[in-house]
Automatic annotation (TrEMBL):
Protein name in the entry: Malate dehydrogenase
Source species: Sporormia fimetaria CBS 119925
Record carries keyword Electron transport: no
Disordered: annotated segments: 28-59
Key words, A-Z: Signal
Signal peptide from the UniProt entry: 1-18
The keyword Transferase is assigned to this record: no
Length: 213
């Protein structure tokens, strides 16, 4: 009896997580677990380098504080059949990828991070152009604005752009810049044809967020 219960409640979700895919899995519910405190970079990030990109690099006095994995949705809405969808925000759960990346140096470690670590924060928008990262380990909210962007390399058109996000006055955290890289999915449908005005379209995505301060 006990064994059957265990298999149903725990083993099935674990099998699902073990699938070797990097597609957004925001629909998968995680079992709640106790959160842990992170007070400083839990491992040496000094040798970690961003994936090659054409965004302006961090300044020489800025250091890498944390790499978070975001798993969630990019949200869009339609106003009419003839206007393309417009972005109205995003929602994502953030996981700490710092140590895994520092030790493996590979973005392919993403799956194991979802399986083995607890969320460290959330990403959301306060209005359609104001992204926020709520990560207590960085000292509170990081409120940013888009400073630069580039087309995601490879699989063109399938993944949302890579971004440089710069902190605004409203920020509480010590992070000054956030890079969104290694994006998967999140791209709006090409048109609003057949979509009722006012409908919110949510498109699953993953990304790495590199925080510098
Ligand atoms: C996290 O830190 C706070 C404040 O230092 C402390 O009260 C709390 O017990 C800690 N939680 C864990 C899970 O260690
Ligand atoms: C975006 O979609 C998520 C569902 O993934 C929802 O929880 C959130 O409220 C939406 N946000 C906006 C601004 O529409």
């Amino acid at each position: 009896m006990h064994n059957i219960f265990f298999f149903t409640a725990f083993a099935l979700p674990l099998l699902t997580f073990a699938a070797p895919t990097t597609y957004p899995r925001s629909s998968i519910r995680r079992l709640p677990r106790q959160s842990t405190n992170i007070t400083s970079p839990p491992c040496d990030l000094s040798t970690l380098r961003q994936p090659p990109n054409t965004l302006p690099p961090p300044s020489s006095d800025e250091t890498l504080l944390l790499v978070a994995l975001g798993l969630g949705t990019q949200n869009y809405t339609c106003t009419s059949a003839t206007t393309p969808p417009t972005q109205i925000g995003a929602v994502a759960t953030l996981y700490d990828a710092s140590c895994t990346l520092a030790s493996s140096g590979s973005e392919n470690a993403q799956n194991s991070i979802y399986e083995t670590t607890d969320p460290i924060g959330t990403h959301y928008f306060t209005d359609s152009t104001t992204p926020v990262f709520d990560i207590q380990a960085l000292g509170g909210n990081t409120v940013v604005k888009r400073a630069d962007s580039m087309t995601a390399p490879g699989a063109q058109g399938k993944n949302v752009p890579w971004l440089l996000l710069a902190r605004t006055e409203a920020s509480e955290s010590k992070a000054r810049k956030v890079y969104r890289v290694e994006t998967v999915g999140g791209v709006a449908p090409a048109s609003c044809e057949g979509v009722e005005a006012g409908t919110v379209l949510t498109v699953g995505y993953e990304a790495q967020y590199w925080f510098y301060g």
